[in-house]
Amino acid sequence: MRIGMRNIKTGLSVFVCILISFIFNRDTYVVSSITAVFTLREDMYNTLRFGRHRVVGNVTGALFSIVAIFIFETFGNGKIVQLIAIPLLIVALIWFLSATKNYEGTVGGCATLLTILFMIPETQSYSYALARVVDSFIGMFVAFGINHLLPHPKNKIMKQAVDNFEKK
């Protein structure tokens, strides 16, 4: 079994996400790397299509985490508040993404909401949620860039065939 081009592009995308995090001294590269892995597809069309769904899901999940942070600041973040608020927000998030026909963004949105809520440092709240949205965009744009720079081999062959045909 050989290592395919999509596998190489995925590894390269994670490398670039980590490198960007190191260069710009970002807190974490978890969300950007996961977004790049989930966004990168076999070709640019599917990468763009899935990337859009992924980012809409992630941004919506982050916005719902801001609602959760507001609830926690208002009512406290004790066990009872968390036990009620988090599942209700998950249900509302899934409903919202389904109502807007963004089904493919549902898992990413839920993961973003839960990641922000469970990993948020005590000293940060809204800024942490915003930083995770930025990380989602980093991962998405890295996947777009890698897929653009290293297109699917069949696309190169097709482009060469069209170019050769046009020259004749």
From TrEMBL:
Which superkingdom is the protein from?
Bacteria
May I ask which residue range the UniProt record assigns to the signal sequence? Answer: none
Recorded GO CC terms: plasma membrane
What's the chief localization of this chain? membrane
Q: How does it sit in the membrane?
A: Multi-pass membrane protein
One Pfam annotation reads ArAE_1
Q: Give the record's keywords alphabetically.
A: Cell membrane, Membrane, Transmembrane, Transmembrane helix
InterPro entries per record? ArAE_1, MFS_trans_sf
Establish whether keyword Oxidoreductase is in the entry: no
TM ranges: 56-73, 80-98, 129-150
The subcellular location is: Cell membrane
Read off the Gene3D superfamilies from this record: MFS general substrate transporter like domains
| This protein's name | Aromatic acid exporter family member 1
Q: Which organism is it from?
A: Vagococcus fluvialis
